[in-house]
Predict the 3D structure of the following.
Amino acid sequence: MKTRLLILCLCFSNAIFAQDAPVTGQQILDSANQAITSISSDEILQLIDKQPDAVIIDVRTQFEVKLLGTLGLYQNVNIPRGWLEFRIAETAPSLDTPIVVYCGTNVRSPLAAKTLMDMGYTNVRNYDEGYFDWKEKGLDLNMGTLDSTTLLYQRPKQIVDGVYSAIGAPQPSTYENSGHNNNLSFIIADDAVVVFNGGGSYLLAQAMHEEIKKITDLPVKYLVYENAQGHAVFGGSYWKEQGVEIIAHDNTPEILEHTSTQVTEQARNSLKDKFFKSRLLMPDHTFSEEYLLPVKGRKIVLKHFGNAHSPDDIQLWLPEDNLLISGDFAFNERMLPILEHTNVREWIENWDKLETLNPGVIIPGHGDITDLQTVTYFTKDYLVYMQDKVEQVLDDGGDLTDAYQIDQSAFMQWKTFRELSLRNAARIYKMMEFE
């Protein structure tokens, strides 16, 4: 009898153990995948075109995003999986907000999608192909760097014979991109190399010089500051050690004197240890409207089209190549910033000087190599649109709040839209308010 009872107890115990066995992670993932709806990359692009208020959530860690990059969409935000329940309300306050979640290998995102559905969100989908598939398809990305073996965001590429440019990140200056968010170019003449833009730090200029030395043994004799902004001038501290003559516009020294403390502090806070040995240096030579660089075998003309993005913007013209290095007079791929000393009206009025040159190839201040039509779209057309909209706000008796409401959705997918669109509207309004 006792033996029989013992056997019955053991069987009952085994039944309880089997019933209480933990569910595996794979079972949870399988269950989540069955409950959610997946979406493809093409469908994501269609979604944001029809519903620009959609939210695309990268649930990977911040470390992964900084190391590998993320989707280059305005709607893209990073909320790590562990914080999703606590931060989703800030990003998607309405339960019917269109939401797409993704990760790298479709492990965390199905669970994230299921969690959002359990929280009451009614329009959630999972991008099961994930970040790596998006990248493999060549779709737009936001990346800290394209080459982790150099401080340069990417190494210089040849544009025409003897002209190279290292295209910077189409984003604000960050530690991850080492402050290389503008285009650093150089031209090889018969007797010397001319560098256009010093770079945002001593170390960045040094990295650029290493690339130049791979291509030519000629010395760098001239450095051109495109303007007085930090990403154009801090590398001058390296180039001056190489015996290079620094050239800038007549307005640059005064701007450097008035902004040096603020610009230095901003760069140091952003670049931290990468700001090593960087300091502001005044130019050795300045000019007003035009200057022919004294090099052999190549006609290199520095120009100043007039007030625009900055009072001291410089352009470099290569008439024999029909190529213009526009500096910050022209932008591509990303939204231009309106600075405190930007003159929007004169920028628009001076645009005809660029059109008169009619360059076949343009290396813009920011963004990839392009043509006149493209920089006109990203620069003049945007300025004209914003100026007209602000004028309408003023004519209607509106205030700064109304300027913030100007519809800029047509530019939403431009890089730096999130950082600059509202600030641009405010600054243009303040400039035009008392005209």
Observations:
- Residues 1-18 have pLDDT under 50 and may be disordered.
- Residues 22-142 form a domain with the Oxidized Rhodanese; domain 1 fold (CATH 3.40.250.10).
- The two ends are 104 Å apart (CA to CA).
- The longest strand covers residues 323-331.
